[in-house]
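Q: I have 244 residues here and want to know how they pack in 3D. Can you give me a structure?
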Amino acid sequence: ALLSDSHAEKAAANELFKSAQYSQAISTYDRALASVPNYLEYEIAVLKANIAACHLKLSDWKAAIDEATKSLEALDRLDAVATSTGGAKAEDDPGASDTANNDEGCIELAEDEEDEGQALEKIARDDRRKDDIRRIRAKALMRRARARSEQGGWANLQGALEDYQSLSSLPSSLLPSSDTKIVDAALRTLPPRINAAKEREMGEMMGKLKELGNGILKPFGLSTDSFKFEKDEKTGGYTMGMNN
């Protein structure tokens, strides 16, 4: 009953998403999550990925990062047991039909309990489940990568690059051509953005350190101008010495 309630709430949230009512969709997806047993990691991952999509539409980058990360964490937990689950499938995209078949049984090939056809069908369901996990992972990575890129800052941009690198290593069948183009472009444009953000944040940090140092040195008649800072171009670090 709980899972049926969750599916009904998710279907309603999908419709809200399609009609651009993103805040209401988030609330409805949250109600769907409240009805999902906490051991159904796949269903949780799908709902979290959908919530991330809503936050992207609202340009709430931090919330989108958080929800996409939770989706990926659920998939990571599921990966550990993927080979022992059936081929249950819950559609991830808002508005998609819901055809979940929550068979969590282990694959067993005992000839005295089931015939070869049944065993092969279980293997096929398991393969479908693995494909579903990869597909949702790709969507969650795309959503987190975009949010990180939009949020900006050294750490977020570096994280976005890592997400896009993960996406570039996935089978091409998991990404539509439009997403593949986005990934390729991001892999070209992010490195200089990361370097610029790093330089800016390092400069800001050095400015704050200088301000702090001046406060400490002032009672001794000194200031940070009494010292010189030299950047090591190889490491990006700094060394300090006295000015003559």
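Q: Anything worth noting?
A: The radius of gyration is 25 Å. Confidence is low (pLDDT under 50) at residues 85-91, 95-113.
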